[in-house]
Design brief:
Elements lengths: L2 E5 H10 L1 E5 L2 E4 L1 E7 L8 H7 L6 E3 L3 H14 L5 E6 L3 H4 L2 H10 L4 E6 L33 E4 L6 H13 L7 E6 H4 L2 E5 L6 E3 L8 H13 L3 E5 L2 H5 L2 H10 L4 E3 L14 E4 L6 H7 L4 E5 L5 H4 L10 E6 L2 H4 L5 E4 L2 H11 L7 H21 L10 H11 L6 E4 L4 H8 L8 E3 L8 H12 L5 E6 H6 L3 H8 L4 E6 L4 H9 L24 H7 L3 E4 L3 H13 L4 E6 L24 H19 L2
Parallel strand pairs: 2-11, 4-5, 4-6, 6-7, 7-9, 8-9, 12-13, 12-15, 13-14, 15-16, 16-17, 18-19, 18-20, 20-21, 21-23, 22-23
Antiparallel strand pairs: 1-10, 2-3
Helix pairs in contact: 1-2, 3-5, 3-18, 10-14, 11-15, 16-17, 16-23
Enzyme class: hydrolase
Pfam family, one: TPP_enzyme_C
InterPro entries: DHS-like_NAD/FAD-binding_dom (IPR029035), Myo_inos_IolD (IPR030817), THDP-binding (IPR029061), Thiamin_PyroP_enz_cen_dom (IPR012000), Thiamin_PyroP_enz_TPP-bd_dom (IPR012001), TPP-bd_CS (IPR000399), TPP_enz (IPR045229), TPP_enzyme_TPP-bd (IPR011766)
Length: 617
C-alpha cells in the first residue's frame, strides 16, 4: 500500500479537494472555497495547508466569523445544496462566533463544514489563551457548543482518526435526509501532527444526489386518499428545490388543476404568475391560499417541515381536512398526524400523476381558486403602489425594489423582522432561486452576509438585500468583504428606528411600546442617535445614498444597478403600517394575568385561537 506523509490539517484539505459533485452532467469541486479568519488555533496548521492549495480551493478572508458562515450557508442554499463551503476560525471566541450560524444551517438543513480550532489535545501548555476550563469535565471545550447544532460532530485527537471521520462527514453533508452542518473540532497541536496516510484515501470521489423511491403501499394509499378529495390544496416546500423536482411539480399541479401555496423556503417553485400559484401560505401568507385552506378537505404537503408559520400554528387549516405529506425524510412526513409518503419528490410526483388518471378536484373549487388568485394579485398591486408619502410602508419599498429587479434572473435576500412577511406576500419572481429567505431560524444579521453568499453562487444575478435597521446594526461587516472580493450586492436599508416588527407584536399582545422602538428605550436625555447608514456603508467601501421617498428610491436603484461595487440605499419607513390583507394567527403566548386591560383582552383573543388549535391536534 502506497502512503503519503501529511499533517492532519494537510490531509483534511487534500481530502476535501478530492471531493467532487456532478451538476447537470458537469463535474465540479464539492467545496467552492474556504472562509477563514486565522488565529493561534488554526493559522499554523490549517493556514499552512490551505496556502498549499490556494489556487484549487480558494481561501476567503472575512471580517466576522458568524458573517462568513452565513455567507457559506447562503451559497449552499442558492446552489440547492449541490456545492458548499468550509469555515474555519481560531480556538475560543472565533469558533464560538460560528455557533449561531451552525444553528441557522441546522434548522434550514444546509450543508456547511465547520473546522474550528481547539485547545491542545496533549494538554501540555494548559490553560492556553482563550481556553474555557471546565471544572467538572476536562474533555469539554467551548467547541462542544457545536454539538446541539451539528448534524455530525467529532473532535480529531489523532491524525489517523480522519480515516473514519471524514467519510462520515461527507455522508452527512451530501445526504438528502440528514443534510446539515458538520463540525470537526481540531486541536491546534493535532493539526500539525503527521501520519502516513494511504494514498487511496485521497482518490477523487464524485457525489451524486441519492434518490429514494416511494414504498408501493404508501404510494397506493396516497393515490386513494387524493382520489377521495374534492377540495385539495398543495403546499410547496423547500424540498422541491433541493430535489430538483420543479418540472415534475409543475406538471403534477397543472395536470390536476391543484391550487398551490408556497412556504418561505418553497417560494419560487412556481412562477408568481403561474395559474396554479395562489400565493404563499400561513401566518404571513396570501389571503387566497389561507382562505382555501380553511375549507379544504385535503392538504398535500410536498417537501416541507410544516413549521408554525406555514400552518398558522395549526389553527389555520380546516380541522376535518386530511393531510398527506410527501417528504424524503420520514421525520417530517409523519408530522401533524399526516399520512406519510416517504420518497424523493422528483421520483414520486410523476408516479402520483400517472396513477391519478382522470381524477380532478370539484369544478367549483377550481373556479373559486381562480377567482381568489385574481383578487389576491389585485391586493398585491394596491399594497405595492407608491402612495406618494415621505414615510413609505415596507410594502411600498418592496414594490419599488421588485419593479427594479429582473423577475427571471435576480435574487432578493432577507431573514428577520417585518420584511419576511411583506416579502412572502408581495415579492414576485419567475426565477426559482429568485427568493432567498432565511426563515427557519430567522437570524438577525444574516441578510448582508447572506447576500454576499448568494452573489458568489450566482454572480450573473443582481442580488438585492432588503434589511431593517435593527438587523443591519447587528452584523454589517461583510459589506467590506463584498467590496474586497468584488461581489457587488445592492442593499436597501429600511430605517424604522427600532425593532418595528416586535413592537407591533408587543402591542398586539396588549403590551405598551417598550424597549423595541428607540423612542421607547432607555436612553440619554437627547434620545438615541440617528444612524447614518449611508455614511457607514461608505466607510466600509460601498457606494451609498439616502433617499426620502419611493420616487427617489426608484431613481437610486437605477444608479445602484449601474454601480460596479456594492451599493447601499437607505430610507426612513413607517414602523406601524403593514399589509393587512392575508396572514393568519400565530401562537405567541399572552400572560394569563396582568394589570393591563389590553393584555387581558389579548389573552381572551388568544384563548379563542388556542381552542381552534386544539381541534387540529
Amino acid at each position: 500500500m502506497k502512503t503519503i506523509k501529511l499533517t492532519m490539517a494537510q490531509a483534511v484539505i487534500r481530502y476535501l479537494t478530492a471531493q467532487k459533485t456532478e451538476i447537470n452532467g458537469e463535474i465540479k469541486p464539492m467545496f467552492a472555497g474556504c472562509w477563514a479568519i486565522f488565529g493561534h488555533g488554526n493559522v499554523a496548521g490549517l493556514g499552512e495547508a490551505l496556502y498549499q492549495v490556494r489556487d484549487e480551493l480558494p481561501t476567503y478572508r472575512a471580517h466576522n466569523e458568524q458573517g462568513m458562515a452565513h455567507a457559506a450557508i447562503a451559497y449552499a442554499k442558492t446552489m440547492n445544496r449541490q456545492q458548499m463551503m468550509v469555515c474555519t476560525a481560531s480556538a475560543g471566541p472565533g469558533s464560538v462566533n460560528m455557533v449561531t450560524a451552525a444553528a441557522v444551517a441546522h434548522v434550514n438543513r444546509i450543508p456547511v463544514l465547520f473546522l474550528p480550532g481547539d485547545t491542545f489535545a496533549t494538554r501540555m501548555p494548559d490553560p492556553v489563551l482563550q481556553q474555557v476550563e471546565n471544572f467538572h469535565d476536562y474533555t469539554l471545550t467551548s467547541n462542544d457548543c457545536f454539538k446541539p447544532v451539528s448534524r455530525f460532530f467529532d473532535r480529531i485527537t489523532r491524525p489517523e482518526q480522519l480515516l473514519a471521520s471524514l467519510p462520515q462527514a461527507m455522508r452527512v453533508l451530501t445526504d438528502p435526509i440528514e443534510c446539515g452542518p458538520v463540525c470537526l473540532a481540531m486541536p491546534q497541536d493535532v493539526q500539525t501532527m503527521a501520519f502516513d496516510f494511504p494514498e487511496s484515501f485521497f482518490a477523487e470521489k464524485i457525489h451524486r444526489l441519492r434518490r429514494q423511491g416511494p414504498d408501493a403501499r404508501e404510494l397506493a394509499d396516497a393515490v386513494a386518499l387524493i382520489k377521495q378529495a374534492r377540495k385539495p390544496v398543495v403546499i410547496a416546500g423547500g424540498g422541491l428545490h433541493y430535489s430538483g423536482a420543479l418540472k415534475e411539480f409543475e406538471r403534477f399541479v397543472s395536470t390536476y388543476h391543484l391550487p398551490v401555496g408556497e412556504t418561505q423556503a418553497g417560494k419560487g417553485a412556481l412562477a408568481w404568475d403561474h395559474p396554479q400559484n395562489m400565493g404563499t401560505i400561513g401566518v404571513t401568507g396570501a389571503a387566497s391560499t389561507n382562505d382555501l385552506c380553511a375549507d379544504a378537505d385535503l392538504i398535500i404537503a410536498v417537501g416541507t417541515r410544516l413549521g408554525d408559520f406555514s400552518t398558522g400554528s395549526r389553527a389555520m387549516v380546516n380541522p376535518d381536512a386530511k393531510l398527506l405529506c410527501l417528504n424524503v425524510a420520514s421525520f417530517d412526513a409523519i408530522k401533524h398526524k399526516a399520512q406519510a409518503l416517504v420518497g424523493d419528490a422528483k421520483l414520486t410526483l410523476p408516479l402520483l400523476a400517472n396513477a391519478l388518471g382522470g381524477w380532478l378536484p370539484n369544478g367549483h373549487w377550481i373556479e373559486r381558486a381562480d377567482n381568489l388568485r385574481t383578487q389576491w394579485q389585485r391586493n398585491v398591486d394596491i399594497a405595492t403602489t407608491d402612495r406618494g408619502t415621505d414615510l413609505p410602508t415596507d410594502a411600498e419599498v418592496v414594490g419599488a425594489v421588485n419593479r427594479a429587479a429582473n423577475p427571471d434572473k435576480d435574487i432578493v435576500v432577507c431573514a428577520a423582522g417585518g420584511l419576511p412577511g411583506e416579502l412572502q406576500k408581495l415579492w414576485r419572481t419567475r426565477y426559482d432561486r429568485g427568493y432567498h429567505m432565511e426563515y427557519g431560524y430567522s437570524c438577525m444579521g444574516y441578510e448582508l452576509a447572506g447576500g454576499l453568499g448568494a452573489k458568489m453562487a450566482k454572480p450573473d444575478s443582481e442580488v438585492y438585500v432588503m434589511v431593517g435597521d435593527g438587523s443591519y446594526l447587528m452584523l454589517n461587516s461583510e459589506i467590506a468583504t463584498s467590496v474586497m472580493l468584488g461581489y457587488k450586492i445592492i442593499m436597501v436599508v429600511l430605517d424604522n428606528r427600532g425593532y418595528g416588527c416586535i413592537h407591533r407584536l408587543q402591542q398586539f399582545c396588549g403590551g405598551p411600546g417598550f424597549n423595541n422602538l428607540l423612542e421607547d428605550c432607555l436612553t440619554v436625555e437627547g434620545g438615541a442617535p440617528k444612524t447614518d447608514f449611508a455614511a457607514h456603508a461608505a466607510a466600509l467601501g460601498a457606494r451609498s445614498e439616502k433617499v426620502n421617498n419611493i420616487r427617489e428610491l426608484e431613481q437610486a436603484l437605477v444608479r445602484a444597478k449601474d454601480s460596479p461595487v456594492s451599493y447601499l440605499i437607505t430610507l426612513d419607513t413607517d414602523a406601524l403600517n403593514t399589509t393587512s390583507e392575508g396572514g393568519s394567527w400565530w401562537d405567541v403566548a399572552v400572560p394569563e394575568v396582568s394589570p393591563r386591560a389590553e393584555v387581558n383582552e389579548a389573552r381572551r383573543r388568544y384563548e379563542s385561537f388556542k381552542a381552534r388549535q386544539f381541534n387540529n391536534l
